[in-house]
Automatic annotation (TrEMBL):
UniProt region (Disordered), positions on chain: 182-201
Keywords linked to the UniProt accession: Coiled coil, Membrane, Transmembrane, Transmembrane helix
Annotated Low complexity bias: 186-201
Name this polypeptide is given: Type IV fimbrial biogenesis protein PilN
Gene Ontology biological-process entries: type IV pilus assembly; type IV pilus-dependent motility
UniProt source species: Thauera phenylacetica B4P
Amino acid sequence: MTRINLLPHRIAKRRQRRQQFYALAAGMVLLGALIGFGVHMIYAGYIEHQEARNAFLKEEIVRIDRDIAEIRRLREQIDAMLARKQVIESLQGTRAETVHLFNELAQRLPDGVYLKSTKQTGRQVRVVGLAQSNARVSHFMRNVEASAFLEQPRLIEAKAVMQDNRRLSEFTLDIAIRPPVEAEPEAGASAPKAGAKGAQK
């Protein structure tokens, strides 16, 4: 009977399988390294892209902060200019009102009454004057009440004083300036015109 020794063939087969295993393991390691490198590169790209976006957003935030500061500065300048404009307009309005006030006071002063000082605070005027008698002060107050520009005279103090060897009455009076009358609406203004036309007929 013929005997065949298979030992060298088995050793060779085992060696071939071991080489295949090593080659497969090396291939798997290499493939894993390539996959890891690829994933690392992808994530590095994502991170770089995100960092670029963050840097862009930071630059935009800085630019917007500068714009906001500039807008705030311009708004403060506009507010200051509007405040100055309002002051100028109020001064222009009160300039004519002051002239009217002095003119009205001069017209309403009866004989025997003299003003020493006037002080205006808003729509209120305080006058200090001398009168030959308390009756002349009352006359002055009635003249003020009849004025279309002044109203609500209120006597604060009246006392007797001696001046140039004469006994006079020194008085302090608060007077209100009437608010400006609002213009009538156009509809009301058109009614007299219609009546005038009817009268012409």
